[in-house]
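Deliverable D4.2, example record:
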Amino acid sequence: MKAKLKSLSTRRHVQSVIPALCKIREYMRGWLNYYGIAAMKHAVEELNGWLYHRIRMCIWKMWKRPRSKMKYLMKLGIPKYYAHMAANSRRGHWFTSATSTVNRALSKEILVRKGFYDLADAYQQMHVNY
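Output generated by the structure prediction step:
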């Protein structure tokens, strides 16, 4: 399943994240409807966290240049100093997308508003009736 999610959120063609989020939502909804009856709360939460990290990394890569990264971070409410530090970081995309600055800018609520399918919430709603 992770391999399929990696192919749906590929880093090569990161022009817009919205179509990738739609494909991921469709795939994850089907996966959850099939495997959701199993008791796997911890595994679903772990997978959900990994997927959030992956989407943040794709968005971070989509912004490309440090100037763009800084501009978008400041638009999302990050102070100029912290935006500058994160944007000019020479660590990789995966590492930088896990920093507190990027996590605050691209929070769970913002990603859900943009169309991210929160797997853990869907799993919880599915198991409320049991």
